[in-house]
User: What shape does this take?
Amino acid sequence: MSQETTPDSNLPVLRVPRGERRLPPNSLWENRFHIRSETSNRLYIVAQNKAKRHWACSCPSYRTRRSCKHLQAVGLPTGEKPYEVRLVEGN
Ligand SMILES: [Zn+2]
Assistant: This one.
């Protein structure tokens, strides 16, 4: 059986965490989704930079250290390393 492969079909799959929402892109960021703090009810936003292709989080830890447990929890690199994935809704 021959199958058409799309250019991104070999990318690692990143699932939006169960129960969280995928968010629309804005001018600088795409592949945005909510991630919930483990220690509070705060919601942070994880997103991919459109130009530089790295991932970031809106939490205080990421903002000061460019690294946080939220990115690590979903398997994304920290430290502003470019990284491509195929983002899919959870469940
Ligand atoms: Zn974070």
About this structure: Helices lie at 60-65, 69-73. Residues 3-89 form one domain. Residues 44, 57, 59, 61-62, 68, 70 surround zinc ion (CB under 6 Å). Residues 48 and 72 are 14 Å apart (CA to CA).
